[in-house]
Amino acid sequence: MREIVNVDLPGREYQVVIGPDLLTEAGAFLDPLLTRKKVSVISDSNVAALHLETLRAGLAKQGIEMQALTLPPGEATKSWEQLEVCSNWLLDQKVERRDVVVAFGGGVVGDLVGFAAAILRRGVRFVQIPTSLLAQVDSSVGGKTGINATHGKNLIGAFHQPSLVLADTAVLGTLTARDFLAGYGEVVKYGMLGDTAFFDWLEDQGPALAAGDAAARVEAVRRSVQMKADIVMRDETEQGDRALLNLGHTFCHALEAATGYSDRLLHGEGVAIGCALAFELSARLGLCSQEDPSRVRAHLKAMGMKTDIADIDGDLPDAAGLLDLMGQDKKVVDGQLRFILARSIGDAFVTGDVPREVVLDVLKDALAGR
Ligand code: GLY
Fold first, then answer.
1. Is-contact 7 233, C-beta < 8 A?
2. How far is the C-alpha of 32 from the C-alpha of 3, rounded, in Å?
3. Is the pTM of this model over 0.85?
4. Distances (CA, A) of 244 to 176, 251, 277
5. Which domains occur in the chain, in start order?
6. Which of 75, 78, 183, 229: disulfide with 147, CB 3.0–4.6 Å?
7. How many angstroms is it from 144 CA to the middle of ligand 1?
8. Tens digit of pLDDT for each residue in 334-367?
């Protein structure tokens, strides 16, 4: 049960290896990349408590020594302050240009450590060992790295492709149900944006996936990563098609900003709600049938996921306030919001041609449902 997806970017090719128990084999996978048998691993305290010793043992099997830094968990770690902590620690460890840095954790650690690797000595190689479902299917693949700014999420960063991604699907067994389902928001996004057959498969297999079916988990991660790799190979730096991966994200970023990037709304939960809103907006614009948003919402609900704005606890701004928050989105071009809309489930496209009033109406109705 081991799958490999190749990301064939000329001169920066790498493999995403997917399967259970890869941590115990990590040494065998990393060894060919190393010029000396030593790696610097950066993790967070939750992941380190559960998995760092397994990784250490997996590396030691090949005689690879590991030095580790453990950061606080949570979105606040994607900061200038922690970037400095990482960079200073890597310099203290005397990491050289030919060494390899390992990002061992979820999306926060992957983005931060990838960025630290991108700028350390003008760029050192790094390996992603993603431990959350979200990181395995999205953030560890494709080379987007960065930190948050006071102006918004991910506004400071660089494209820096990893040299290898090891997605150990057994590790997903240690996630909370909430974290797993938040990551599932990104999985189902792939079906919605470009693969109807995958969406059909998820409607059928989603419950087994959530319940822990190992083969279904490998297959879901493989299909998601393959679709992401295909898109990244076509458009590494998001001049066009890569923006499709942001289905649901324009709404999501506004909802995350409105909830203070806190536990009130996890990123993947915001993506799921955002996808439902993007399909609703598409239906209102006459682009897709009214059945499509209903089918999207029915599947998210069947999985026990947050589906509607009404599922977010606490106060939120009004529709105009949410629309303002969308203005900080990285996809804004010449002040014009760009949306990922859909002609059907599995057929999304990017457009800047969306009347403000229709977006406002969708948000007003969604808020009225609270
Ligand atoms: N997470 C969206 C992208 O990698 O482009």
1. yes
2. 19
3. yes
4. 28, 14, 15
5. 3-174 (3.40.50.1970), 184-368 (1.20.1090.10)
6. 78
7. 7
8. 667 789 999 999 999 999 889 989 999 999 999 9
